[in-house]
Design a protein that fits this description.
The structure holds three protein chains of three kinds.
Chain A: E1 3-8, E2 11-16, H1 21-27, E3 51-54, E4 61-62, E5 73-75, H2 79-95, H3 110-117, E6 134-135, E7 141-144, H4 153-162, E8 167-170, E9 177-180, H5 197-201, E10 207-209, H6 223-239
Parallel strand pairs in A: 1-5
Antiparallel strand pairs in A: 1-2, 3-4, 3-5, 6-7, 7-10, 8-9
Chain B: H1 3-18, E1 22-27, H2 30-34, H3 37-50, E2 57-62, E3 74-77, E4 84-86, H4 91-102, E5 112-113, H5 118-121, H6 139-144, H7 149-157, H8 160-170, H9 182-191, E6 198-203, H10 212-219, H11 221-235, E7 239-244, H12 249-264, E8 280-285, H13 295-302, E9 326-330, H14 331-343, H15 345-350, E10 352-353, E11 356-357, E12 359-366, E13 372-377, H16 382-389, E14 399-404, E15 410-413, H17 423-428, E16 437-442, H18 447-461, H19 467-484, H20 490-506, H21 510-514, H22 517-525, H23 527-535, H24 551-567
Chain C: H1 15-26, H2 34-45, H3 50-60, H4 64-73, E1 85-90, H5 93-97, H6 100-111, E2 124-129, E3 141-143, E4 146-148, H7 153-160
Parallel strand pairs in C: 1-2
Antiparallel strand pairs in C: 1-3, 3-4
Helix pairs in contact in C: 1-2, 2-3, 3-4, 6-7
The chains are: A alpha+beta, B alpha/beta, C alpha+beta.
Chain lengths: ~240, ~575, ~170
C-alpha cells in the first residue's frame, strides 16, 4: 500500500493510502471524539463529533469517512472545533432524557464519558423532556428510547453482522425513533434472534440487559471484530 | 423519425399555423384554471364548433403564460399583427374578442394588457420560450417551435465530449440552487468508466414559495426530455429518471404522456432519431420529503430507501444510482440545454452577468402587484424585478424584504435592492439564488417571525440523520419562539447565533448547512427587529404578541417588589 | 427461500390487493420499487395498514422494519384511514405572508380537529401542505384536490359547510 504524508496539528505524519483521517490520528494517539463510529460497522457520519479542520475545505470534514491524502493539513482540536463538539454533545443531552444517576449505564456510558472529557458542566439549550416509552417486552433485553442518541449502531449491526434487520428508524427529524419490525413491541418481534449484539454496541443505556441496576451495565464490544475476522478468514479459505 | 422527417414535420406545423386567421391561446395553468379558464375554453370550443371548426381558426390550451394573478389569460395571434393578451378573461369577453377578430373590427380594450407591459418586455424567455405558447400535451406543437432540433443536431454533428464542452462554454450553472457549473459535471460523468450510467432530473421542487419547476414540467414537458436526452448522449447514459414531487400529479401526468409520445415518434427509446443512441426515461414520484431535493437523498429515494443524504465524496458523478456514475441536474437546468444548442453556447453565455450566465426563472409572489412566473437575464437588479416587472407592492406599500432561496436562503433588505442578481452576489448578501422562489414582503411582515416560519419548516423536514440538524433546528425554533413571545433574553440571542454558526459548519448535507440562513440573514439585515423583541419586548411589525415575561425581568420584578415592600415598612 | 407468504386474513379476497399485486409484478418484485408499490397500495386502500405493509415487505423480500421506516419517513404516506373528503391548506411562504395561519386556525376551530386530523364522523381530513406551488393564488387551499384561492378565513369555512358540520365563530 502506497505511503502518504500529511500534517496533523502541525506534525508531519506518515500514513497508508486508504486510511481515514480518524485511523491515522488514532494510530498516533490523537484523541478525536466519536460516537456513531464503531470499527467494523459501516460509517454513518451522523454525530459530527469527529469533524476536523482541513486546509482548503470551507467546512470541517468528518474524520471517520474522509480518506487521508497526500499533503493534507489537518487540525483536530481548534477552539472552534472544541466548542462545536461541546455544543453537539449538549444538543444530545438536551434532546432526550439522560439522567445518569438512575441509568444502568452510569459510569460506563460513552455519552457520559464524552461530556466529561469535553468539560461540559451545564447544557445551555432547552431540555426537550420528551416523554418517550420504554419497551421491556423482550425476555432478556429492554429498550429505553429516552436514552437513545440515534447513533444507529444497533440498526447497522443487526443488518450487516447478524443479518436479521430487526431494527430500523421510523419517522424523521426530531421524531425519529428506533423500531423493531413494523413498530411492534420488541418482545413480539419475529425477526429478532435475541443475539444481543445491538445491546452490547449501544453507547448509552438505551439498550440494556434486563435485571441490571444503576451502573451495572458493562458492555463487551470485542466480539464484533472477532466475528468479522473469522468471517474474513472463512471467506479467504473458500476462495482459496 | 429521422432528422429530415423531424424538419419536415416542423415545417408543416409552422405552415399550418401561418394560414390561421386567428389563434387563441388560453392559459390552462393551475392558477388560471382556478380563476375559471375552463369556462373560457368551453365557450370558445362551442363557438368554433358553431362555425364548423374551420382549419384557419385554432384554439390552444397552453401551459403557464406568466402573470398568474391575472388569470384567466387569453393570448390572441393574428398574422401580421402584434400578439395581444387579455387578463381576467370571461367567456363573454373571449367570445367578443373572437367576434370582433372575425369581423376585422377593433378588438375590445377591456382588460387587455398593454403591449409594452414591462412584465413581459423586461423578461428574456429561453427556458420558458414555449411555456404558454404551446399545448403541453402536443408533441407536434413543440416540434413546430423547433423542438428536438437541438437533439437532432447534437446527435448528428457532435461527439459526446464536444457536447460537454459546449455546455462548459455556455457557462450554465445548476439552477437547483447550488450553482455548480453544469458542463463540468457533465464532463466528470462523461469521463467515468462504467457499464451503466444514469441521468437524473431533479423535479422535487420543495421550497415553499417556488413553483418554477412545476410550471415548466406542466407547460413544456418535452423541453426537459430533450435536455435529458442530450445529456444522456453527452455522458454515455441510456437510462434517465425524472423525480417529480408527489404534490405535482399534473406535472407527472404531462411528463408521462410526453415520454409516451416521444417514444412513439422515435425521439426517445431505442435508436433515437435513427441514430445508434438509445435513451429511456422513467418517472419516479416523490412522497413528501423536502430533503429529497438534496441529490444523494434523491438518489436514495429513487432506490426505494428513506430519503436521507449521505456523505460526499463519493459524488454521484462517481457513484450514484446503484453505485453507477450518475448525472443529476435540476429540471430547469435541463430546460436550458435545448436553448443552448439552439442559439449556440456563445450566444447563451453572452446573456448574463459575471460568473452567472444565461437566465433564471423566478416565481415572483408575496405582496407584489404582479404575481407570476418570470424569466430574467442574470444580473438584473432586484429593484427591476420587484418594481418594474412586479409592479411594486400592492397599494403602494413600502418594501421591506425579499426572500430568495426558500428555507436555505435569506431575506434581502431594501438597501440591497440594486445589487445585480447572480449566484455570488446573493450569497454575499447571506441568501442564495436557490431554485428561484422570490417572495416580496411589506412592512407588516415580522422578520423574526419569518425566520421562525422557515425554521419550523426545517425542523419538520429534517431527515434526522445528523445531530446538528435534527436537534439544532428544534433548539433554534424554541429560541426564535421565545424571542417572538417576548420571553427571550440577550443570552438567548447569543445562543441563537452560536447555534446557527455551528449548524452551518457541522451539518451533514447542504440543506442542514443552509437551514440557519434565514435566521442569519435576518439577524444581519434586521437585527434591530430582534433587539426590539428582546430588549423592548416590542414587535415592530405588530405580528408577534408579547405576553410572556422574560426570565431576566422576573428577577428584576421580584427585586422591585422587595424594594417596594421595604419602603412600605412592612418588612420582608 | 421462496416461501410463499400467506396473505393476511384481513386482506384475503380483498380485490384491492390485486392492484397492489399487479404493480409489484410489473416492477418485477424489485426491492428498489418499494416507494412505487407503497404509492399504489395507498391509492388502492386509502392508507397503509400494518397488514398491508407486512404483505408488501414479504412480497418484496424486505425487512419489515425497513418498510416501516420508509413508510413513516415520507409525509405522503399515511398509516391511518383518511376522511371522506380532504381539505389541505397551503402554508408555503407566499401563503404564510398572506395569512394562511389564520385560515388554519379558523378551520381547526370550525371543524373541531387540529390540522393533520380527521373529524370524528370520518367526513373530513384537515391538513396543511408545505407548498402546493400555486403561490400566485395565495393564500390557497385545496378541497378534494380542487384548487381555491385567494381565500379568507371566512370564505374557507364557507367552502367546507357542505361537506362537514362547521361551528361558526364563537361570540
Amino acid at each position: 500500500m502506497a505511503a502518504i504524508t500529511l500534517t496533523i496539528n502541525n506534525e508531519l505524519i506518515g500514513a497508508r493510502q486508504g486510511q481515514t483521517i480518524l485511523d491515522v490520528a488514532r494510530e498516533r494517539g490523537i484523541d478525536i471524539p466519536t460516537l456513531c463510529h464503531l470499527e467494523g460497522l459501516e460509517e454513518v457520519g451522523g454525530c459530527r463529533l469527529c469533524l476536523v479542520e482541513l486546509q482548503g475545505s470551507p467546512r470541517p470534514v468528518p474524520a471517520c469517512v474522509t480518506k487521508a491524502a497526500e499533503g493534507m493539513e489537518i487540525t483536530t482540536h481548534s477552539d472552534k472545533l472544541v466548542e462545536y463538539r461541546k455544543m453537539l454533545v449538549e444538543l444530545l443531552l438536551a434532546e432526550r432524557t439522560h439522567t445518569c444517576s438512575i441509568c444502568v449505564q452510569n459510569g460506563n456510558c460513552e455519552l457520559q464519558t464524552l461530556a466529561a472529557k469535553l468539560g461540559i458542566d451545564h447544557v445551555r439549550f432547552d431540555y426537550l423532556h420528551q416523554q418517550l416509552p420504554m419497551d421491556a417486552s423482550r425476555e432478556r433485553f429492554a429498550l429505553d428510547h429516552n436514552r437513545c442518541v440515534l447513533c444507529l449502531r444497533c440498526v447497522r449491526v443487526c443488518d450487516a453482522v447478524e443479518g436479521a434487520h430487526t431494527w430500523d428508524v421510523r419517522g424523521r427529524g426530531s421524531t425519529s425513533r428506533i423500531v423493531a419490525d413494523l413498530d411492534r413491541p420488541w418482545g413480539g418481534s419475529t425477526s429478532c434472534t435475541d443475539c444481543g449484539k445491538c445491546v452490547q454496541l449501544c453507547p448509552t443505556g438505551a439498550l440494556f440487559r434486563k435485571g441490571a441496576t444503576v451502573g451495572e451495565m458493562i458492555k463487551e464490544r470485542g466480539f464484533l471484530n472477532r466475528i468479522l475476522e473469522r468471517r474474513r478468514l472463512a471467506a479467504q479459505r473458500r476462495s482459496a | 423519425m429521422n432528422w429530415v422527417e423531424l424538419v419536415e414535420l416542423a415545417e408543416s406545423v409552422v405552415a399550418r399555423q401561418q394560414v390561421c386567421r386567428l389563434r387563441l391561446l388560453v392559459c390552462c395553468g393551475t392558477p388560471c384554471m382556478a380563476a375559471g379558464a375552463e369556462a373560457v375554453v368551453v365557450a370558445l370550443k362551442e363557438k368554433l364548433a358553431e362555425l364548423g371548426d374551420p382549419a384557419d381558426l385554432e384554439l390552444v390550451s397552453t401551459g403557464c403564460q406568466g402573470p398568474c394573478s391575472r388569470g384567466p389569460l387569453l393570448t390572441v395571434q393574428r398574422p401580421g399583427q402584434p400578439e395581444l393578451i387579455w387578463q381576467k378573461t370571461t367567456p363573454e369577453l373571449a367570445l367578443a374578442i373572437v367576434e370582433a377578430a372575425l369581423q376585422q373590427e377593433p378588438l375590445p380594450e377591456q382588460d387587455r394588457l398593454p403591449e409594452d407591459w414591462p412584465f413581459f418586455t423586461r423578461q428574456t424567455r429561453l427556458v420558458l420560450a414555449n411555456s404558454g405558447r404551446i399545448d403541453p400535451e402536443s408533441l407536434e406543437q413543440y416540434i413546430g417551435l423547433g423542438g428536438y432540433d437541438s437533439l437532432a443536431q447534437v446527435l448528428i454533428d457532435m461527439a459526446p465530449d464536444e457536447v460537454c464542452s459546449g455546455v462548459v462554454r455556455s457557462g450554465l450553472r445548476g439552477r437547483g440552487g447550488g450553482g455548480y457549473p453544469t458542463g463540468l459535471k457533465w464532463q466528470l460523468v462523461h469521463k467515468e468508466n462504467g457499464p451503466r450510467k444514469f441521468v437524473v432530473a431533479n423535479g422535487d421542487e420543495g421550497d415553499p414559495g417556488a413553483y418554477m419547476d412545476r410550471s415548466l414540467m406542466e407547460s413544456d414537458p418535452h423541453r426537459i426530455l430533450e435536455g435529458m436526452a442530450i445529456a444522456g448522449y453527452a455522458v454515455g447514459a441510456e437510462q434517465g429518471y425524472i423525480y417529480v414531487r408527489g404534490e405535482y400529479p399534473l406535472a407527472a401526468q404531462r411528463l408521462r404522456n410526453a415520454i409516451k409520445d416521444a417514444e412513439k415518434a422515435g425521439l426517445l427509446g431505442s435508436r433515437v432519431l435513427d441514430s445508434s443512441f438509445s435513451f429511456r426515461i422513467d418517472i419516479r414520484i416523490g412522497a413528501g420529503a423536502f430533503v429529497c431535493g438534496e441529490e444523494t437523498a434523491l438518489l436514495a429515494s429513487i432506490m426505494g430507501k428513506r430519503g436521507q443524504p449521505r456523505i460526499r465524496p463519493p459524488y454521484p458523478a462517481e457513484a450514484g444510482l446503484w453505485d453507477c456514475p450518475t448525472l443529476i441536474n435540476n429540471v430547469e437546468t435541463f430546460g436550458n440545454i435545448p436553448s443552448i444548442f439552439k442559439i449556440g453556447p456563445e450566444a447563451f453565455s453572452a446573456i448574463g452577468h459575471g460568473k452567472s450566465r444565461g437566465t433564471k426563472v423566478f416565481a415572483l409572489c408575496g405582496e407584489v402587484v404582479n404575481n407570476g412566473l418570470i424569466e430574467v437575464p442574470m444580473g438584473i437588479s432586484l429593484r427591476e424585478i420587484v418594481f418594474d416587472i412586479g409592479g411594486g407592492l400592492a397599494n403602494g406599500a413600502a418594501f421591506k424584504a425579499a426572500q430568495t432561496g426558500g428555507p436555505s436562503g435569506g431575506c434581502i433588505s431594501a438597501g440591497q435592492l440594486d445589487t445585480p442578481v447572480d449566484y455570488e452576489n446573493l450569497q454575499a448578501l447571506g441568501s442564495i439564488m436557490g431554485s428561484g422562489g422570490l417572495i416580496v414582503m411589506g412592512q407588516q411582515s415580522c422578520m423574526v417571525d419569518v425566520a421562525r416560519f422557515f425554521m419550523e419548516f426545517c425542523l419538520d423536514e429534517s431527515c434526522g440523520k445528523c445531530v446538528p440538524c435534527r436537534t439544532g433546528t428544534v433548539e433554534i425554533y424554541r429560541l426564535l419562539s421565545r424571542i417572538c413571545n417576548g420571553s427571550a433574553t440577550n443570552r438567548d440571542l447569543q445562543h441563537l447565533e452560536q447555534l446557527c454558526r455551528m449548524m452551518k459548519d457541522t451539518s451533514l448535507c447542504g440543506l442542514g448547512a443552509a437551514a440557519p440562513n434565514p435566521v442569519l440573514s435576518t439577524l444581519r439585515w434586521f437585527r434591530h427587529e430582534y433587539e426590539a423583541h428582546v430588549e423592548e419586548r416590542r414587535c415592530p411589525a405588530g405580528v408577534c404578541s408579547m405576553h410572556e415575561l422574560p426570565v431576566h425581568l422576573l428577577g428584576e420584578q421580584l427585586l422591585q417588589r422587595i424594594a417596594a415592600s421595604r419602603s412600605d415598612g412592612e418588612g420582608f | 427461500m421462496a416461501e410463499n407468504p400467506a396473505v393476511p386474513p384481513v386482506l384475503n379476497a380483498d380485490p384491492r390487493l390485486k392492484v397492489v399485486d399487479r404493480a409489484m409484478k410489473r416492477l418485477r418484485y424489485q426491492p428498489d420499487a418499494l416507494i412505487e408499490v407503497l404509492h399504489t397500495a395507498q391509492e388502492a386502500f386509502g392508507y397503509l395498514s400494518r397488514e398491508l405493509l407486512a404483505y408488501v415487505a414479504s412480497q418484496l423480500k424486505l425487512p419489515e422494519s425497513q418498510v416501516f421506516g420508509v413508510a413513516t419517513f415520507y409525509h405522503s404516506f399515511t398509516l391511518r384511514p383518511k376522511g371522506e373528503h380532504s381539505c389541505i391548506v397551503c402554508t408555503g411562504t407566499a401563503c404564510y405572508v398572506k395569512g394562511a395561519g389564520e385560515i388554519v386556525t379558523r378551520l381547526e376551530q370550525a371543524v373541531g380537529v387540529r390540522a393533520g386530523q380527521t373529524t370524528a364522523d370520518g367526513k373530513l381530513s384537515l391538513g396543511t401542505a408545505r407548498c402546493l406551488g400555486n403561490c400566485s393564488l395565495a393564500p390557497m387551499l385545496t378541497i378534494d384536490d380542487v384548487v381555491y384561492g385567494p381565500e379568507t378565513p371566512d370564505s374557507a369555512v364557507e367552502k367546507l359547510r357542505s361537506l362537514v358540520e362547521v361551528t361558526d365563530e364563537l361570540g
